[in-house]
């Protein structure tokens, strides 16, 4: 696993974007996969900074990634206490449609080919098919 550790500052999202650009160029990742990968991983890191670490600058976000011939896996871990990932509201239901929060995980789940949370909810794994 390759790793990158970031402080919980929104401007560090640009480092994540650069990492995805570099990986995409090095492994010649198809543009469809690149778009999904970029949006989902940036959203995951943003969630880790804002919700997990509550924007406490001294708290870290760990990004790990592994690439095989047919899949790329990203693990995003924050220093927070986690959350109940088994009971997420559906942002597309009428009662939630106008809320400004709650779409990130929904989006990540639809962009990634597979998404898994680890207990207690401060680590998410995103998998993307390359073939």
Rg over alpha carbons: 14 Å
Strand order of the largest sheet: 1-2-3-5-4
Question: What is the tally of helical segments?
Answer: 3
Q: Going by CATH, what is the homologous superfamily? A: Histidine kinase-like ATPase, C-terminal domain
CATH topology: Heat Shock Protein 90
How many strand segments?
5
Envelope shape: globular
- CATH top level assignment: Alpha Beta
| Beta-strand residue percentage | 25-35%
Structural class label: alpha+beta
Description:
- Helix content is 34%, strand content 26%.
- The chain has three helices and five strands.
- The protein has helices at residues 13-27, 31-52, 104-111; strands spanning 2-7, 60-67, 71-78, 114-118, 123-129.
- Strand 2 (60-67) and strand 3 form a beta hairpin.
- The chain is globular and about 40 Å long.
- The model has no long low-confidence stretch (mean pLDDT 93).
- The relative contact order is 0.21.
- The protein has one domain (2-129): Heat Shock Protein 90.
- A five-stranded antiparallel β-sheet has the order 1-2-3-5-4, covered by helices on one side.
- Pfam families: HATPase_c_2.
- One of its GO terms (molecular function) is protein serine/threonine kinase activity.
- Keywords: Kinase, Serine/threonine-protein kinase, Transferase.
- Residues 10-127 form the Histidine kinase/HSP90-like ATPase domain.
